[in-house]
Specification:
With 256 residues, this protein is mainly α. Helix content is 56%, strand content 4%. It has two domains: 98 residues, Multidrug-efflux Transporter Regulator, Chain: A, Domain 2 (Orthogonal Bundle); 105 residues, no CATH class. Helix 4 packs antiparallel against helix 5, helix 6 packs across helix 7 and helix 7 packs antiparallel against helix 8.
């Protein structure tokens, strides 16, 4: 059965159903679109039927539309939710119990972007507290950077404690200068990316869409930043100054 009109009002064909993680909000409140049985749905999303049924039992997916006592069909909002769950659990490494908490936060009547981001971060382990002169030096360096950048963040924020632990590890390995020099560079690059991400979140049509966009930004932003930074590092280390071939020379030959 073909997929009919989505909530945007634009006709969508089977090979081109919108899959980006920011298009679900409001779908369930619209007219029902074309549906798929669970076997067809499984093949479409590339997820085994037992996994889909497990997500249904765990409340990660809403029940399908019953067509008989033992059969149900699934539509685009199920596909979107399933892709979001998979992205959170596989790309983001978020435990399924925490995924459920994030989804609950995203659908709460008083949903806020900060609320869903807190729910997303709660699964992350916090570093063990440390004390001593080295810890105080690392803490001072981090807090001075945050103050200099004008970031209004509590010193007790879990991310701040993690940053302090990272700076402390750099010092303990004999690379204290890296923690000082790189921290400002990372902060500057992150500010530019954060402005783009914040605009994207703010452009959401309603609180639920903005909340989902915030989750997607946090999830994909971390992955993008990690990959881009590593590629940039490899490129920088391959410049002629370091004795290696320039990165641009490894691609296809430039047109003459």
């Amino acid at each position: 059965m073909p997929w009919h009109r989505g909530y945007t009002g634009v006709r969508v064909y089977p090979a081109a159903v919108v899959r980006d993680l920011s298009c679900e909000v409001g779908v369930q409140d619209r007219a029902e679109v074309g549906q798929l049985r669970i076997g067809e749905f499984s093949r479409r999303v590339g997820v085994p039927i037992p996994t889909i049924k497990y997500y249904l039992r765990q409340g990660l997916l809403s029940p399908g539309s019953l067509t008989s006592p033992n059969q149900a069909t699934y539509g685009p909002h199920h596909e979107h939710r399933l892709r979001l769950v998979r992205a959170l659990s596989e790309l983001g490494g978020v435990p399924l119990a925490r995924v459920r908490a994030v989804l609950v936060a995203m659908t709460a009547p008083d949903v806020t972007t900060l609320g869903v981001l807190r729910a997303l971060r709660e699964h992350e382990p916090e570093p063990e507290p440390e004390h001593g002169p080295d810890h105080e030096q690392a803490r001072t360096a981090v807090l001075e950077t945050l103050t200099r950048r004008g970031w209004l963040i509590s010193p007790d924020d879990p991310e701040v404690r993690k940053l302090i632990a990272t700076a402390l590890a750099s010092r303990s390995l004999g690379h204290a200068e890296l923690a000082v020099e790189a921290l400002d560079a990372y902060a500057e690059a992150s500010e530019r990316a954060a402005r783009v991400e914040a605009r994207y979140v703010a452009d959401g049509h309603d609180p639920r869409e903005r909340a989902e966009r915030a989750v997607v930004v946090a999830l994909l932003g971390d992955a993008l930043q990690s990959s881009v930074r590593r590629l940039a590092l490899e490129g920088a280390m391959r410049t002629p100054r370091t004795g290696g071939p320039a990165l641009r020379r490894q691609g296809p030959k430039a047109r003459s």
